[in-house]
Task: structure prediction
Amino acid sequence: MVCEGSVHCLALAYVADNVPESRRVSVFGILTGIGSSAFVCGNLSTRFLSPASTFQVSASVAVIATVYMRIFLPESINVVVENGVSTEANVGLLDEDKGSKKNVRIFKTMPSFDDTVCLLRSSLTFSQAAIVAFFSNLGDVGLHAALLYYLKASFHFNKNQFADLMVITGIAGTISQMLLMPMLATAVGEEKLLSIGLFFNCAHMILYSIAWSAWVPYAAAMFALLSVFSTPCLRSIASKQVGPSEQGKAQGCISGLGSFANVVSPLVFSPLTALFLSASPPFHFPGFSIACAGFALMIAFAQSIMIRAAPPIISSFKVGNGICVEP
Result:
């Protein structure tokens, strides 16, 4: 899971380096939609492959992806020699952004915790996006930590029915991100689209938690048509708050907060799930832990409403070696 998150983070930073800001949210959505389609294909393939073959095919596909990346993807940062001095510059942006006056800042050392704090302080919008990222991941992981056990206890779902739910969610997310999102992002803006995605993500968790029949989880899974908007919009908003050379650090910061939420969430929601699915719960509410996960999404939704559309900015601070310096 950590590896998958790292690859996704690097892919988004690479895209941000090579796509102009006006098209970034749409491209982020398409990229995430392609990931959703791969998720669907992977789930379907497990129906026809033996367990041993599944791991072999997965490893082979990973090798193919690595080879493709090394052959066909150029570096976004190239070394430029000027007046006898070697410097690094971002050359990946499309012509639309080549006239940008944003300063290129390259980090010579690995980012520290102090660097991350400076980055969070550099922009109110970025800080708000970071809060949304934490609570959004907290709720999402809480849902996935509890859902299988809840559905098995309440409706006797087996692994095949649970896989069907994941496939439905993946197909709905793929269609939405690749077809609907590019149009809606232009029409309503990524800030509103972020709030819409978080609202429906919260709503589908609440619907899971109060499901009264076995068909309700399938209906709730269809909410992915709108709930998948949140991640690409959040990443696009964060990417526009930093300069070209800080995309990796910005996406890494968002991913790091998400990973921290991934660690905290099972510690909170797994015992809660076990308690309310036990023979003697405090009160009868089998989906209580999922409802609490929905509450975490509600916090993220409330924070997203406060994010205001603003022109992209250059980082207010030069961040490096744990030092914040005004440009």
